[in-house]
Design a protein that fits this description.
mainly alpha, rod-shaped, single chain
Amino acid sequence: MKNFTKLIFMAGSGFLLSGCIASQNDISTLKLQLQELNRTIVQMQANQAELAGKMDELNQNLSVSNENLSQMDEQLSKFSTKLDDLAASVTRPAETSKPSATMLPSDLFAQAKTHLDKAAYDSAATGFKLYISTYPDGENVEEAYMYMGDAYSAQNKNKSAAVAYATLLQKFPKSKLIPAARLKYARSIIPLDKKDEAKKYLNSIVRQYPSAPEAALAKEELAKLK
């Protein structure tokens, strides 16, 4: 009986001891799982922080890109405006290449003369050239050649000026403008290394038109060429 009781006691103690050992193992396992879970949470937090940093960087890049796009739009707008201005400046001469149907020859000539008086030499030369080509028999065609030459001469376009004066001399040899045209023609060809020819025209003024104001000016030019 005593042995049986002792056996039961030992069996019960073993069972209790076995239950305690199982509980400790479970706790250890749970601790390991908690540690792993904590590491996972820490890694997730680190990843989240890194992701947040990348999102901030992306937002900054987008902001810079938007600013660059705005600047590009502004530059394109300015460039477009310059192109419009350039196109307008190119088309203006074409628009004035033909006289208005209501513009009289005298009005066209007067308009070109106004440009000349205001030192708008390009517009003046274009206007006189237009007058000559449109009204070759107009009453102001002689003056148109003379003034066209003056417009070119004012821009140091000596060759174009010389052509205008020479055309006047050739087409209208009896014009009252001959002394002035010869003087201006001579002056325009001197820079073109045609001094000998210039001297001939200057001397012709002195001989043929001694009383004309251009004769005294021709003598002054001749003195400079010696």
